Amino acid sequence: MTELPQPDVPDRPWRIWASVAVVAIILSGALLGVIIIPVVQGRSAGIDAFTAICRALGILPGSPAIPQIVSRNPPTPVSQVVWTPAVLQVLADAKVDRGRAKVQEVCVACHGEQGVSISTDYPNLAGQSGTAIYKQLNDYRTGSRTNQFMTSVAQALDETTIADVAAYYAGQPMRNPNPATLGAPDAIVQLVELGDPSRNIPPCAACHRHGAGGPIDAPVLSEQRQEYLTAQLKMFASGQRRNDVYGRMRTIAAKLTDSEIDGLAAYYRAGLR
Amino acid sequence: MRSVDRLCLAHLWLAFGAFAGAAVLGVWQMWVRSPLGAHTGTPGDYYMSVTAHGVTMAYVLSTFFIMGFGYFVAVTALNRPLPGQGWAWTAFVAGIIGVVMALVSIALGKASVLYTFYPPLTATAWFYIGLILVVAASWVWCVLMFVSMTAWKRENPGVPVPLAMFATVANALLWLWTTAGLTVELLYQVVPAAMGFVQTVDVGLSRTLFSWTLHAIVYFWLIPAYIAFYTMLPRAAGGRLYSDTMGRLTFIFFLIYSLPVGLHHLLMDPEHGNGTKFIQVLLTAFVAAPTVLTIFTIPASLEIAGRLRGGRGVFGWIAALPWDRPMVLASGLSFVMLAFGGLGGLINMAYGMNAMVHNTSWVTAHFHLIYGGTAVIMYFAIAYEIWPRLTGRQHESFSPLRWQLWLWFVGMMVMTLPWHWLGLQGQWRRVANFNYDSPIIAGWGPLVIVSLGGGLLLLASALLFVRNLAVLHRSVLPAPSGSLYALAVVPPRHVPAALNGFGLWNVLVLTSMLLAYGYPIAQFVIAPSPTAIVHRIE
């Protein structure tokens, strides 16, 4: 911006002193925040000056005032599936046609060509989230989840085929997104929509409906087989099934009463074609 | 009515119409969180409503009000036509399209991400594109404000720019600086994620970029209130502004100290070192400087008015002020809310004390008191002051105007003081419902109901406000003439170039942003952190 000369009002001192003031304030902040305070705090926490300064800058993790505690526990994951960009890319590259071929060859016997299962003990897969199918098949393959049929089926599949099958079933007709409209006891609807905070039970719908928040591998539950759901909830409650990361479902299912398990399974069965 | 008056009224009516709708949502949210309305609606409904309320209040009300008010100031303070009116109307239409895109996305349940977005949560791309359109419209306004001022300076060499316009351009420049963070976050990170081009997002970086915007945006909302304090209130009270230079310094301080401070919104975040947070907390303390100047200058101006009206003694001038005038009344009430909100803000900015109130209702109370209270009550006062100039009609009675301002003040205090207390008790914010069966939470119930009562007063006030403006359009009284803006006790004849333009201050903003934000942002490029999986709301 061009300023017009105003000879009777000196501008130069303004430029100099305003700049000095602003830069001095920031530099004194840096001197205090990055050097003096971390060094003094680090000394009483047994941290050398260089490390303390690096921590204050954020180059090294941790606070300059507290010795960093390092966990020595070996990790024991309940599932080998990690949602890395590479895994997501495998899912994004999946081919529905290849998936259909594999389904017609193998899965159709129990889960049906459209993903509607032949028995109430087997889950419906039509419109299921692809990430959910991918995770469960991988868990069967690696032994994180076991089943007398599925373990051997999954071990015969490679990662690409799993992604193809997941994409195929995910593309089958969308499930009814809101079984609440089909009628269910108020207490069960409340459990689904609001959970029960007094028992620290979160709402089922927070994770298990299309587009809900929560882990991306959470399956969609509407139009699922009642007997299958009841069996899974009971297996989570007893700890027999344990491929849920952070034990989320084991924690929740263990707090549900038998009648709530039955009610929820019936609720999610509603709308089944 | 001149074309530019229609332009101002279009912006202001859009702002206040959206405001009234969002006020209804606010009360509904308080209802479902209270023991009275527990179990009404689902958490999904709640977050949809919070998103609509926040987006409307934070982006629609503020941006369109400030644009409309800015056009008005540019024409009335500079006494010259607004350049580029075609651009202004085009920007207005683009802004409306943007608002509709964002609100429809929210109403369809595809954008319940709150107005602060929170990646890796990702709404439909239409939501973000709509908001970018609103921001782009406001940039056109910024350019027009700057062009108006430079054209006036060319025509009036050596004459100080009128304070109202100087402050408006300070706000426009502040807005250009501050929206850079949000725009980079949306265009570089969030929109590609929403469109499915990328599967992961660096949340630390996105939070840092949003913090760039998040503090200064509040000063963008607040500056119109200060423009009214400095340029309208002294005249409305029947006096003069104590010091024009103090006014210029105040707005310059806002420009340079509200920007390099955003990391104080991330005090609990792990992605930044303690030292870099310390620097910005120290700078945050300096944001109090313009308010301290104002607390001195404005009461001094009012004292002049009070004594001219015959006030005597140490406090007698206060009683002598014309409190029946909406601008004077609103300013007094605004100062009270600024006192409470400002003191609460000092606690938020302190590293240790912030840890205790972080993510509690304390924070919600603080920003409602500062923005909804201090700033928005002055939006009302400004509207009451400039509507007669825009329509050529005068209010038939000030009584409903005073009622509306008092209702807003009492409602805001009754709503936010219990929130502060509940925050100290640990009541968390951003949750859809509380389990009042728990003995600890049950104890919160009565205060939550009291604050709901405050919310109802606010809604009544919001509706009365819209009514007061609507009936003015049919008033038969002619508008007052004469200047709207206050003269200074010693009107400036010449001021240093530094106090008559922004070249120096823009250089200093750039310098301080580089020093304060340079490394905190560069670290994400030097040593990228683990990214989070995009979670799309579909």
Low-confidence stretches of chain B: none
Beta-strand content estimate of chain B: under 5%
What is the gyration radius of chain B calculated from CA atoms? 23 Å
Number of helices of chain A: 12
Mean pLDDT of chain A comes to 88
> What name does the CATH topology of chain B carry?
Cytochrome C Oxidase, Chain A
CATH class placement of the largest domain in chain A:
Mainly Alpha
Low-confidence stretches of chain A: none
Q: Largest inter-chain interface?
A: A-B, 54 and 59 residues
Distance between the termini of chain B: 46 Å
Describe this structure in words.
The complex is a heterodimer of chains A (273) and B (538). Chain A is mainly alpha-helical. Chain A folds into three domains: 1-70, no CATH class; 85-170, Cytochrome Bc1 Complex, Chain D, domain 2 (Orthogonal Bundle); 179-269, Cytochrome c-like domain (Cytochrome Bc1 Complex, Chain D, domain 2, Orthogonal Bundle), CATH 1.10.760. Chain A contains twelve helices and no strands. In chain A, helix 1 packs across helix 2, helix 8 packs across helix 12 (258-269) and helix 10 packs antiparallel against helix 12 (258-269). The longest helix of chain A is centred in the N-terminal third of the chain and has 34 residues, at 12-45. Chain B is mostly helical. In chain B, strands 1-4 form a two-stranded parallel ribbon. Chain B has a two-stranded antiparallel ribbon with strand order 2-3. Chains A and B meet through helix 1, helix 2, helix 3 and helix 8 of A and helix 10, helix 18 and strand 4 of B.
Summed up:
The complex is a heterodimer of chains A (273) and B (538). With 273 residues, chain A is mainly α. Chain A contains twelve helices and no strands.
